[in-house]
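Feature request, filed as a ticket because there's no other form

It would be nice if the structure record came with a short human-readable summary line next to the tokens. Right now we just get the raw output. Example of a typical job, pasted below so the devs can see what we mean:
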Amino acid sequence: MKSTLSLFCPGGLPLPEAVTIYWKGEPIEAFEGQSVAAAILNSGVAEFREDHAGHSRGPICGMGSCMECRATVDGVPYLRTCLVPVTSGMRVEPADGT
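Raw output as currently delivered:
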């Protein structure tokens, strides 16, 4: 697959492999090993879930403290996507109402 992603790696470091993951069933191009939250944000999505009151929520801290990036990853609910590395073919769904 021809990648539309760009990444600068100084000093001739090898680039991570571009892979596809699925957010709400839609393909997203990502880099192997980057956080799932970063991949979703890079695709233009800012709303990861809704809280109990129906308000949109998305990542704030990027390091696992705020819990706002929770989602279901490959069937495992309530994972903090900023701490989960991308692997090819992952399926990610919002954790609505949490």
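Something like this underneath would help us a lot:
The longest strand covers residues 18-23.
The mean pLDDT is 89.
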